[in-house]
Amino acid sequence: MEPSSRIIVALDCDNRAAADEIVSRLGDECRFYKVGLELLTAAGPDVVKRLVAQGKQVFLDLKLFEIPNSVAGAVRAAGALGVSMVTVHSMGGVGIMRAAVDAARGFPGLRVLALTVVTSMTDADLADIGVDDAAQQQVLRLARLADKAGCHGVIASPQDVAVLRSVLGAGALIVTPGVALPGESPAEHARPDTPRAAVAGGASHVVVGRTVTRATDPAAAFRDVRADIAS
């Protein structure tokens, strides 16, 4: 896969104008954007429609965790918007994930990805909610469950990629938030690594946010990420 196709820029904005400005400044450099709960709540589905109309791919990061019928309805709505990826929370279990996968069948271009363990969570955070295993053990458990449910791939930290690739095989998508260029702060991510390390470990895509979106020159920052992957 060509390096630019692996990079998803997170539009973690609180208004449409800010998102539009980032997309405009990146121009043809970026082909893939993540729209999360903040921007979707602030700007509505039109922001997704606009990106799709511009020929961009959209990763709609909803982290769906509801009863199966509600999850299926949300996935169908995502498919109707023309998005390429949508997320469901693997901790909801096989029933919820299967409902998402079944709902996506009517949209051949839509892939369902299961969130394993949020990249800000530590072993101590998991213990707080009654999970005694270390984060990577929980990631593997949930990834296997997602594979059993028919999900097209998973969301996990860069530090989990290599072992996930060995478990899920070559065909699964593994999308990694929590990447930062060498010397940059990983922000709130507890299990970070570089874009280069994530892809070398087997990630299909990396999600970058502030590295690009808060740069003085977002297009130049995007090229830095691409160069890190290519190296």
TrEMBL record:
GO terms for molecular function: orotidine-5'-phosphate decarboxylase activity. Keywords: Decarboxylase, Lyase, Pyrimidine biosynthesis. Residues 6-225 form the Orotidine 5'-phosphate decarboxylase domain. Pathway: Pyrimidine metabolism; UMP biosynthesis via de novo pathway; UMP from orotate: step 2/2. Substrate binds at residues 12, 34, 119, 209-210. SMART domains: OMPdecase (SM00934). This is Orotidine 5'-phosphate decarboxylase. The gene is pyrF.
